[in-house]
Design a protein that fits this description.
binds S-adenosylmethionine, Rossmann fold, alpha/beta, seven-stranded mixed β-sheet
């Protein structure tokens, strides 16, 4: 059994993100606006709270990476909470520039670098992590107009290789349901838990606008 692919869109292309972060850099420089926090600040807060509650497994010096970090606001939040080993990567050099500017201005110690999650060599260079976070990046990769299935698989291989034995992989998606994520990840990952998100009811069915799940590596 497999999931039905999404229709490709410009959100699945690097050109789109470069243009969008170019604009956001201008806004940040001119107005101090840090730009879009995808799926709103509450989604981000729910993940930060989840990490903070697991202080026995996730120490302040745990190695945490944000995949497709955009403006880096999740890492900014974690740095403010005292986490010290934070890395953000994005394939858009403009996103990395924006995130670096924001962290520097706020005097926060966050390491950013350009890396493509579909490039094996790039991923190998990143090393291993205790927490891997993705909000909206798997979604963007799934929207790639060319061979999205292959790209989703390459991304999942890359994530798995970055995980320490006990690492948590936290993913927030608005394009895939919990069932679809669990099915697509089932060969390489096992669901650890879900982070509750607001639900709505329509026609007797309960649904969510966003899904946040935590996975562990399948041994
Ligand atoms: C929907 S945005 C989410 C940004 C950020 N995670 C947030 O929640 O605000 C998707 C991000 O994924 C990045 N991205 C997409 N494909 C990527 C890839 N193959 N490698 C690295 N980053 C990628 C984009 O540049 C963009 O910053």
């Amino acid at each position: 059994m497999s999931v039905e692919e999404l229709n490709g869109s410009e959100l699945g292309t690097k050109e789109y993100w470069e243009k969008s972060y170019q604009r956001e850099i201008r806004n940040y420089k001119n107005h101090g606006d840090v730009g879009e926090i995808w799926f709103d600040e509450d989604s981000q807060l729910r993940v930060v709270n989840w990490i903070m509650k697991r202080d026995e497994e996730i120490a302040d010096d745990a190695k945490i990476i944000d995949l497709g970090c955009g403006n880096g606001m999740l890492l900014v939040e974690l740095a403010r909470e005292g986490y010290t080993q934070l890395v953000g990567i994005d394939y858009s050099p403009k996103a990395v520039e924006l995130a670096t500017n924001i962290a520097t201005d706020q005097e926060l110690n966050i390491k950013y670098q350009v890396a493509d999650l579909l490039d094996v060599a790039d991923c190998q260079k990143l090393g291993k992590f205790n927490v891997i976070h993705d909000k909206g990046t798997y979604d963007a990769i799934s929207l790639n107009p060319e061979n999205p299935k292959e790209k989703r698989e390459a991304y999942l291989d890359c994530v798995r290789n970055m995980m320490d034995e006990d690492a948590f992989f936290i993913i927030t998606s608005c394009n895939w349901t919990e069932e679809e994520l669990v099915l697509s990840f089932s060969e390489k990952f096992i669901k650890f838990c879900s982070i509750p998100t607001p639900t709505f009811k329509f026609g007797g069915k309960v649904g969510s606008v966003v899904t946040s799940l935590v996975f562990k590596k399948k041994i």
